[in-house]
Specification:
This protein has a domain of 131 residues. The longest helix has 25 residues. It is mainly alpha-helical. It has seven helices and no strands.
Length: 192
């Protein structure tokens, strides 16, 4: 089965991260940030040049909220943006695909007043991001380790609880695999 067969909003996998399940009612709902709809080369300069990422955020400040620190307001938490740049320093294509996934993951855990229809739309975007990563893996030969990504993205109890809340609201749904490229940044704009 290929990684493009279906997308269940970011897996059941993270139970190992914290070894317990939290109540979805305990999810920290202090976030009311407007996230960009899509990634772009203008809002995420790290895609073209991995040295153009944000500075390392203060860990205590970054982990104090579900949203964390996003000093450049591009919708990707600074620690995650830096991790992408460090993990894929030689591939703008993988950085673009991972930035698309990171923005979608941030939407999953920070969208206020989440309902089933909104969760479904976010999950469709997640399917596009997953498909884009698959395309970039076959184009670049690089691989995405979902366990490592999830440990980075959902690295606090409140972020993990927010993910479980998203999945509970989303419920069980399957999605069609897009037939066309679903990367938000057109491939001709990326050199590698």
């Amino acid at each position: 089965m290929s990684n493009k067969s279906l997308y269940l909003p970011l897996l059941i996998l993270p139970v190992f991260l914290f070894g317990c399940s939290g109540s979805s009612s305990a999810v920290n709902q202090e976030i009311a940030v407007a996230l960009p709809a899509k990634v772009s080369l203008e809002t995420v300069p790290m895609i073209l040049d991995p040295s153009q990422g944000p500075s390392a955020p203060d860990p205590a400040e970054n982990d104090a909220t579900v949203a964390g620190v996003d000093s450049n307001s591009n919708g990707i938490r600074d620690d995650v943006e830096r991790w992408i740049a460090q993990t894929y320093p030689t591939s703008a294509k993988m950085r673009a695909a991972m930035a698309q996934m990171a923005l979608n993951s941030q939407k999953e855990i920070t969208t206020p007043n989440l309902n089933r229809d909104t969760a479904y739309q976010i999950a469709l975007e997640g399917m596009d991001a997953t498909n884009c990563i698959g395309d970039m893996e076959s184009t670049t030969g690089l691989r995405w380790d979902i366990k490592v990504y999830m440990a980075q993205m959902y690295n606090t109890r409140s972020r993990y609880s927010a993910l479980m809340n998203f999945q509970n609201i989303m419920g069980s749904r399957a999605f069609r695999v897009p037939e066309t490229n679903t990367c938000e940044i057109p491939l001709p704009q990326l050199a590698d």
